[in-house]
């Protein structure tokens, strides 16, 4: 008998005349595979309705269902992304099928799975994942993976690392029992891959640069970095190491990477460069990596003035400011400069970075407030734009309603003048206004408001 499906979905909504559903996503996992060939694993998005929905859920181990509305702007933008993701997800070792349901047409089916018509953005329990094809694939691949993978050979280790890709850090426990990291693996599953290697050769020990067990190796494939933890293996110390290792030694700061800092309470040693990609910056980044390795209680990051001028100006850095410049940022509204270490020149950069860190730890600092948005402000800048558009839309709706229901003033004149008032130049009747209003409203919602 099939187990209860695991339901994970989210819904967005906007105005369409009154209240409408924009997007709801459903991820359903079934533990059985039904007989019959009604559905094929061919990499195409399935179209489901009342007649075949339950059969589809029973036929696949994992199925990701998009409840959409044909008029919905967000849904229209999502559809081609699902088409791109479908063949990739279908080709996984644990295939995931993508399907869709017209929630506007099959409302009872949508309601059965708690997909409702709502007037404002509403988050349920919960698909929080991205909606671009490549990011969707990464998220769902990780979602269906075991909490802790068990690796029993050198080849299994290599296959696991290759399959994990480069988008998340990878933790491999050598000589560890999976129970030692299971709770933390569940807690941080959205942020990293976890595994334990039961059997491995000296070649693997050499490859991952550890010389005794137990050992927990953290790998950042995207940054070509790895580190080793030899204990103690009590949960508190393990969690500290895992949390610190979720980020690379030095993090390039941009709109996406700021999101990684949101849940980390460590202070950020931020180095502001003229240009992230020039030769001088490359040398300094190598020095900063060495410093980061010895100061894991801090996050090290860098950003180029050329790459993100608006952000660095929040730290009083302008075109004529001597760069590179280092500050210690709390990730919110304040930061510290270190007295005597206002900027770094090209001579002996390692010593200058050490002096900066010593000055910070000794309290030889000046506290300042950032002059722009906070971390959450930078992360939410695009959301802010959307809120402004929604506000403008609501205001327009209210104005149109008032205009549509406005009564025409009485006029004084002869019968002939009254007859003339019924000519083509007369004010529009309420019915005409309603037609134009609905046409405008439909245009706005189709544009994705």
TrEMBL record:
Residues 1-34 form the signal peptide. Residues 23-166 form the Thioredoxin domain. The chain crosses the membrane at residues 383-405. Pfam families: Thioredoxin (PF00085), Thioredoxin_6 (PF13848). The keyword Membrane applies. SUPFAM superfamilies: Thioredoxin-like (SSF52833). Keywords: Membrane, Signal, Transmembrane, Transmembrane helix. Belongs to the protein disulfide isomerase family. This is Thioredoxin domain-containing protein. It comes from Rehmannia glutinosa.
């Amino acid at each position: 008998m099939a187990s209860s499906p695991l339901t994970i979905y989210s819904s967005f909504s906007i105005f369409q005349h009154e209240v409408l559903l924009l997007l709801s996503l459903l991820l359903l996992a079934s533990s059985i595979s039904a007989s019959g060939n009604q559905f094929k694993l061919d990499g195409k998005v399935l179209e489901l309705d009342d007649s075949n929905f339950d059969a589809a859920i029973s036929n696949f181990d994992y199925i990701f269902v998009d409840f959409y509305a044909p008029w919905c702007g967000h849904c229209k933008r999502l559809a081609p992304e699902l088409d791109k993701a479908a063949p990739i997800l279908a080709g996984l070792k644990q295939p995931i099928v993508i399907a869709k349901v017209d929630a506007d047409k099959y409302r009872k089916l949508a309601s059965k799975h708690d997909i409702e018509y709502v007037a404002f953005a509403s988050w349920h329990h919960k698909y929080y994942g991205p909606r671009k094809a490549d990011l969707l694939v990464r998220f769902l691949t990780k979602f269906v993976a075991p909490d802790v993978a068990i690796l029993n050979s050198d080849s299994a280790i290599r296959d696991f690392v290759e399959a994990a890709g480069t988008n998340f850090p990878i933790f491999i426990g050598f000589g560890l029992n999976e129970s030692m990291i299971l709770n933390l693996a569940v807690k941080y599953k959205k942020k990293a891959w976890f595994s334990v290697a039961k059997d491995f050769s000296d070649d693997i020990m050499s490859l991952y640069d550890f010389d005794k067990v137990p050992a927990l190796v953290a790998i950042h494939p995207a940054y070509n970095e790895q580190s080793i933890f030899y204990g103690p293996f009590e949960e508190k110390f393990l969690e500290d190491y895992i949390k610190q290792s979720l980020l690379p030694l030095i993090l390039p700061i941009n709109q996406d990477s700021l999101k990684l800092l949101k849940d980390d309470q460590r202070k950020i040693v931020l180095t502001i460069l003229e240009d992230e990609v020039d030769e001088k910056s490359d040398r300094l980044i190598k020095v900063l990596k060495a410093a980061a390795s010895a100061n894991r209680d801090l996050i090290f990051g860098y950003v180029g003035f050329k790459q993100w001028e608006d952000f660095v100006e929040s730290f009083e850095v302008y075109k004529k400011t001597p760069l590179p410049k280092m500050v210690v940022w709390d990730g919110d509204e304040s930061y510290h400069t270190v007295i005597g270490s206002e900027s770094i020149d090209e001579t002996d950069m390692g010593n200058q970075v050490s002096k900066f860190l010593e000055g910070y730890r000794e309290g030889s600092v000046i506290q300042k407030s950032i002059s722009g948005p906070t971390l959450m402000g930078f992360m939410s800048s695009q959301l802010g734009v959307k809120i402004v558009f929604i506000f403008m839309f609501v205001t327009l709706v209210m104005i149109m309603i008032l205009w549509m229901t406005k009564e025409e003033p009485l006029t004084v004149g002869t019968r002939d003048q009254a007859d003339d008032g019924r000519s083509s130049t007369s004010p529009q009747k309420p019915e005409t206004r309603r037609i134009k209003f609905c046409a405008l409203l439909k245009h706005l919602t189709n544009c994705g408001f």
